[in-house]
Amino acid sequence: MDAAAWTIRAMEFSNCNCAYGCPCQFNGLPTHGCCQAVVGFQIHSGHHGDTRLDGLKVAGMFSWPGPIHEGHGEAAIIVDKRADPAQREALLRILSGQDTEPGATIFNVFATTLDKVHEPIFADIEFEVDMDRRRARLVVPGYMESHGEPILNPITGAEHRIRIDNPNGFEFHLAEVGRGWSNTSQPLAIALSDSHGHFCQLNLCQSGVIN
Fold this sequence. Notes:
- The structure is a single chain.
- By secondary structure, this protein is mostly beta strands.
- The chain has one domain (6-205).
- The protein has helices at 85-95, 106-111, and strands spanning 6-16, 35-48, 51-52, 57-64, 73-80, 114-117, 121-123, 126-130, 135-140, 144-149, 151-152, 159-160, 163-165, 174-184, 190-205, 208-209.
- Strands 1, 2, 3, 4, 5, 6, 7, 8, 9, 10, 13, 14, 15 and 16 form a 14-stranded mixed β-sheet that branches. A two-stranded antiparallel ribbon has the order 11-12.
């Protein structure tokens, strides 16, 4: 397949092993030295060349032994089983950082840090996300379960609201911060509990984040 222009507009939930807020968002080192993450998103509208991607879901699990920029990561990508062959190929090209200007998207940047990428998985993906309420649910039977909630005030129990505004980001311009719990069984085993989560609009093209 020749390089193609692409766009996706999606809603995303991401849960990593860092403390709330995630130092990586501020060019800091990860809370526990290593990085692990579980991510899911649903495309509301999108295309890769002439191939439409509307309505499709994607999930992923990632692990790095140290900070992401030091590399040696491992990843597994799960693509909506409903995708036809052309859609599957299009999504895998986008998610592997192909057809993208160097450093322009999180997919392209992460791809340069991975030593091992498992064979893609095509499965049913259950995904619900509400960015304003800071809640999400991600389930891929046999592979992963994840959910996100708001951060709670430790004294009053009230829901805390805080956002990350990143006008020069390669993932999002604005994200609601919360917390998450995730467990994956294969091909990577990841267990996250009450750690950083964010909820955002994932609006990307081959040149980076778009409005």
